[in-house]
Amino acid sequence: MKMDLFENIINKQFDFQSIADNFQVINNLIEIPQNPKYHGEGNVYIHTKNVCDELLKLNEWKELSNKQKVILYLAALFHDIGKISCTKIEDGEIVSPKHAIKGAKRFRELVYIEYAQKYEIDFQTREQIAALIKYHGLPLLFMEKEDLEYNLIKASECLDMNLLYLLSKVDLLGRECGDKKELLNKIEYFREYSIEIGCFYSKKEFRNEYTRFKYFNTKNIWYGDKVFDITSFEVVVMVGLPLAGKDTYIKENLSHMHVISLDDIREEFNVSPRDNSSKIAMFAKDRAKDYLRLKEPFVWDATNIVSDTRKKLCDLFSSYGARVKFIYIEVPYNELISRNRIRARSVPIKVINNMIHKFDMLESFEGYKTEFYVNVGI
Description:
Blueprint: E1 3-4, H1 5-11, H2 16-20, H3 24-27, H4 44-57, H5 66-78, H6 83-86, E2 88-90, E3 93-95, H7 99-113, E4 119-120, H8 123-134, H9 138-141, H10 148-158, H11 161-173, H12 180-196, H13 209-218, E5 233-239, H14 246-253, E6 258-261, H15 262-268, H16 278-293, E7 298-301, H17 307-318, E8 322-330, H18 333-341, H19 349-358, E9 369-374
Parallel strand pairs: 1-4, 5-7, 5-8, 6-7, 8-9
Antiparallel strand pairs: 2-3
């Protein structure tokens, strides 16, 4: 029987050692060095322990609900696991580029394949923690970014900005560096500026759905604008791993629409999934353009696990006046593997695991609309 992750951590009274011992990846952080210029405290494990300890000292900690405490604590515990694969020596300095993005992916992968077999962890909780890991450096760096307001508003779509603010604060308090006071001021400014533009306590409100879509997908309008909605038909883009249930969802809910399936096109042209897929994508896009010119709704059925791929599809379809809706489908890992065993053309487990490793989770701002269906029909 699975343990309730929330109860387990609360019962351990947020004791770092007893919690960390349940996750081998945290113990692996002992082997990962850090640049002493920014982390005089030592390796990543020491830093992580410091961060978790500092969390319990915050005055704001007492104001959080138990659920918020567990989410924030786990985000602090796992926030630097990306450094395991990213840390290297560059020009004589220890650096860990993109460790936050890779850390979020690694956390999701660990939960999906491993931790979900032992603990009850719901999809929403997993994704909130992953988002905090992904964006944990934003409060310190947001003023250096070109699209300052855009980056804050985008982050607020994915997570609780107050939890992000607290995570960033303890991330700084848990390290030894010479400019700590100056950096703490930056984090406070992150909070103040997010409140000022209206995205700290909740997601940013837009004048209509189309304005929201244009803001996130073109970045060339002001968030306070009201853009006239020129869309006239819908295109649905499916997102999910092989065997997650995308085809079943289409049959049960979208049978009234044309379907462009990359798997069906491969079979039509007798092309193996292992072969180059560029020709298949070209055929699929040509068919899509026929429907787009006629303003006819259709479904684009493929895994679409890479965010760049989804962005290109969204740009193409929306340029014809389509409302692009992304639909994400997920089932537990064990169910995925069970289905694969009885499939006529099974996918090698190594390939499935590699796709999970590379997966860019769909984010709510990517399309005109996004919908998530997790563990439905099992």
